[in-house]
Amino acid sequence: MSRITLIGAGGKMGIRLTRNLQKSDYQVWYLEVSDEGINRVREMGEQVSQPEKVIPQSDTVIYAVPDIYIGKVTQSYVPLMKSGAMAVFLDPAAPLSGVLPQREDIAYFASHPSHPSVFNWEPDERDHFDYFGGIAAKQTIVCALIQGDEADYQQGEALAKTIYAPVTVSHRITIEQMGILEPALSETFAAALVSKMKEAVDIVVDKGVPKQAAYDFLLGHINIELALLFGQLPGGQFSDAALKAIKIGDELLFKESWKEIFEPESVAAQIKAIT
Length: 275
What we know:
With about 280 residues, this protein is α/β, with parallel strands linked by helices. It has two domains: about 5-175, NAD(P)-binding Rossmann-like Domain (Rossmann fold); about 180-275. Helices cover about 50% and strands about 15% of the residues. It contains eleven helices and seven strands. The chain has helices at about 10-20, 35-45, 50-55, 65-75, 95, 125-130, 150-165, 175-205, 210-230, 240-255, 265-275; strands spanning about 5, 25-30, 60-65, 85-90, 105-115, 140-145, 165-170. The longest helix has about 30 residues, at about 175-205. The protein is globular and about 65 Å long. The two termini are about 35 Å apart.
């Protein structure tokens, strides 16, 4: 039985992980510092442990803490880890920002959920509304071995499949590629675009279009546009008029330099900003 310490167990992500770890065969110790987080852990039927007692005994330590605190937390807790143990991170920010302590005798691993796809289908309609994933709706994950050997990767991936269950596919990538996916692709790029979509529909509503009509019209069109562009409708294509409108929008909305956000220097700057 592998022994795990979950740091940040009472946070938003920590509670999700706790829920799935409770269903597993892992022996888990839970760490939390905030009063609110401690109460959430206790509501889950678990007790909060002392780091000095449990981290040195752990085979794996999961760092489920916000990016802005990850440097301070790792500096405090990584030195407590026993030789041969593994530190697991839930995104690439900490490894790529250079804040991890130098420990050649332990493994570093990162994994992040893709979250259920917009094209996901669940037999039970209630499961469909697990938009975040990790409860009922299936999702894929990405995994990267930062430091360690193949056995470490297999151990980390098995744990990732447990904490993010139900998982359909685990994609093995590098930690640098994970940084391109998040924050660059999923947040700096996609979340910014989606935020502007919400701002645009609010403008339309302000101009007198009934709110529900505007929402229904935009969300329905987004659905078909995504299906056309991401291969869900083989042979489907935009109309000639739509292609002309896309060209107009592209010229009005985007600077020629927008692709630079995926270059290494920009990705590094984004990660530095969020950590």
